[in-house]
Amino acid sequence: MKLSTIRKQAIDLLFISLGIALYSFGFCAFTLPHNIVIGGMAGFSTLIHYASGGAIPISLCMYGANALLLLCGMRTLGKAFVLRTIFGATMISMTIGMLEGYFTAHPPLIASAPMSIAMGSVLMGLGIGIYYSHHGTCGGTDIVAAIMSQRTSLSMGRVMMVVDISIVALSFLLPFDGSMEDRIQMRTETIIYGWLAICAYSLIADRYLSQGQQAMQFIIVSEKWEEVAHRLTHETGRGVTTWEGKGFWTKEKRTLILLWCRKTDAPQIFYIANEVDPNAIITNSYVRSVYGNGFDHLKAHKKGEKRKRS
After folding, report:
1. Torsion angle of the four alpha carbons 251, 257, 260, 266, in this order, in degrees rounded to the nearest 10
2. Which of 16, 23, 194, 264 has the fewest CB atoms nearer than 10 Å to its CB?
3. How far apart are the first and last CA of the chain?
């Protein structure tokens, strides 16, 4: 294995661990003390924890449920996904296991439930965005969604949304001392908080991920186009397309460079083009999406066509 590959994997593991730590702290310190059930495996394990009267720790339930889901989907899921999930599930279970006891035994850091949930959602959203951006996964609804997306025409995002909303709604059935009217009033409030938390941390995670995944298009006009194209290809790893153009007024022929890249590659492209030719004309714009080699994978199906079962 190349040294650069080992270094990249080590950096990924470091950021995955950081993302899991942020998520766990946001969940244990700001959401759990207010008895709010959220989505994902953390929410499902919270349901089991409350239903058992606190006898089953959230971290233990998370690890056990993830292990069962992985065993059920071992043949469907790829080896890389399984290995990443084992690492992520182990890390998040250990981190929540170290934090949940302290924060459930002490008063909430923020007394106001809405403010506490908002803070927790920010940290959880950042955590999810960080570990997803480095190819991490903590299992849970990720496993369910991955299996369903391969066996049905449903997308992973839609499956995860349905599962998360259902988990929060099930908190209505948790043990409650009081009349049905009191149950409806109290559980409705906590369910709404849970749904708002899902929306908030999902939006933050998507925003974080889109910053790195946003595609851009560059068109560069330069007299030193060969040197610019050579450096762009070899230093950024992005393919370059050239075509001939002609100025309408001057009638001069010019070679134009076309390049698609991620937003994170843009500073390097500006630097290279300007360093080679300070007089180069550079235009850049956001594009909605780019599919193909080096970008997003296109999953397209004919209207009405169902995905074949594996």
Report:
1. -110
2. 264
3. 33
